[in-house]
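agent> Task received from the user: take the single chain below, predict its 3D structure, and emit structure tokens. No templates, no multimer pairing.
agent> Plan: (1) validate residues, (2) run structure prediction, (3) serialize to tokens, (4) report one or two observations.
agent> Step 1 OK, no nonstandard residues flagged.
tool_call: predict_structure(input=
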Amino acid sequence: MRETWLKPNRRAILFGAVTPLLIAAAGLWLALRKTDSDSTAWHWSGVVLFLLGLACAGQLLLQFRRPRIAFENGMVLFYLRSGSPIGVPVDVVEAFFAGQGPAHLPVLAKQPQTANLMARMSQRQTEWATQPVKPALGNWADGYVTIRGAWCEPLTGETIRKLNRRLKEVKDAAAGEAK
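)
tool_result: status=success, residues=179
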């Protein structure tokens, strides 16, 4: 069973769902409004807007179930792209630590700085040095994974200590099973 280690930024997801929900509400109003004239075009336009708004909001709200980092079957799962996560063997992940960088927010020309989470991969495992990821969510290059703090739960010292503690626990358990 998948164990969530780092959750997504729920506030950002909810904020992003506001516009599609407003579009769905406007569509529902158009679909249900009563007029003197027969306006089936407005009715069906409203139905389409309602369904599109709900579908977009639903897609966004599904992101609640998609962590940024999880653990399952000896693999650390990094959810930094669409589709399936990038599964890295737990022995390849060396540590998590705090970093800082641009937030990569879509509409801002001058990007504010945000706290980031860094994960260091083993230098001996060169196949994990670089992986394609969605730039808004992070970066994966030169054996370091950067997870943008704007798109995950708040990064505190305790969060990073918890990640490293859990990483050590699963590595120790794997080493104990290997003996």
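agent> Step 4: summary for the user.
Strands lie at 3-6, 69-72, 75-78, 86-89, 93-102, 113-121, 138-141, 144-148.
agent> Done.
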